[in-house]
Hints:
By secondary structure, this protein is of the alpha/beta class. It has one domain (2-213): Alpha-Beta Barrel (TIM Barrel). It has 11 helices and 8 strands. It has helices at residues 10-17, 29-35, 39-49, 63-74, 88-99, 112-120, 130-135, 140-153, 169-178, 187-192, 197-213, and strands spanning 2-6, 24-26, 54-57, 80-85, 104-109, 125-128, 160-163, 182-185. An 8-stranded parallel barrel has the order 1-2-3-4-5-6-7-8, surrounded by 6 helices. The relative contact order is 0.12.
Amino acid sequence: xxxxxxxxxxxxxxxxxxxxxxxxxxxxxxxxxxxxxxxxxxxxxxxxxxxxxxxxxxxxxxxxxxxxxxxxxxxxxxxxxxxxxxxxxxxxxxxxxxxxxxxxxxxxxxxxxxxxxxxxxxxxxxxxxxxxxxxxxxxxxxxxxxxxxxxxxxxxxxxxxxxxxxxxxxxxxxxxxxxxxxxxxxxxxxxxxxxxxxxxxxxxxxxxxxxxxxxxxx
Length: 218
């Protein structure tokens, strides 16, 4: 499974990228707003840090304007992935961009039928939002299971399932068990994946005993 980080905070990306565990980055207009920075500048910095796919989202809602914005965004760096909404115009833009070998992330997916259409349009990634489905009383992981089943039935569909709107570590583990290709995580959730009280307690016991030996490895 690939780990992407969902943020436009360059300092957080630098910190997590240094671990060697980061495969890519996703951003959206809300995250760019939160950063308080120009989208072109922040995407360029992120692409310099992370060699993997970096999603930059168009703000337009019609096909022609989406393509104009995509031209600007994809010129920033070779690893920019153009993010488009799951609308008819978004799918049309996806097909056009994929015909030019541009990576495309189709976002705001909430149903298996939408995911099937995105794959037919050639999407590199489909981004189902599990947390937002949970918020309205549904089970977001049911959607991931459905998409995995459909894509498995048709091996010619090469779209990767990028699980988005991750809220907790259970979302990550459940997505991995189902077989999703990618998860995009808020930085705090990625850091939580390593935490376990028994690890902390065990390490403390080992270090306490080592100190009593009076030895030094160096």
